[in-house]
Amino acid sequence: MGCVEELPYEVLLRASSFKECREYIKGHFRESINVTPGFKIFDTHIIGVPPISVGLDGDFVIFPYTKPCHGTFLLRVENRAEAERLRTRK
Amino acid sequence: MLGCPQVPVQTSIALYLIHRLKQAGITPVVAGNRSAVTLLVVADPKREYLGEALDLDRAIDQIIEHKRDFDLCFVFIHNDSGVSYAATMGAISKARLYAVVYGEHYDQIVASIEFPCQTIAAKAVHNPMPLKKMLDEVAPWAA
Fold first, then answer.
1. A51/B contact by beta carbon, under 8 A
2. What is the mean pLDDT of residues A46-58?
């Protein structure tokens, strides 16, 4: 999952819980989709407790990224192609 | 499947579980981050107990891509990330799932587990005996 760390990401939540990430997305973004664990975003399999919420805000994708020692980070990455790919899953 | 090795009992209980599984004729494969796996490698230099050890993310990738799967899965959990990894294993693997929960706040973690699995839990931070006792009572190697 190293490729996420190479993306130009912004950290919205740091060392949070999966529930905090889910609630933040529901509370801050009008557009979101639910995915299952293992779903690929930016070529990375997403870890989490289903349903995993992924926010969409224009060309931005907002998604949780879990590390064993540091909890879950909520990341925002601008990528039109990935945002559109995720929208087509609705 | 090991979590962050921040809590001392993890390495001890992992080696014990590996031993019991091997005694029962089950071949254990360990997945963890570099620190968690290195703790086992250093504690077991002749690999008397430890067999195959994989990077955690690589193991998950292989299961999702249907390159391999397991009959049993023990996820070591002492924080929220561990719950996320266990839920992920429940969703992607056909293995019978065990959540091995420990640490100071083990009861809060157990309460946050809302997916099907068998929980083996004890308040264990430095002393592995409470968790060993729970593991022996459940005896998943005999199931």
1. no
2. 95
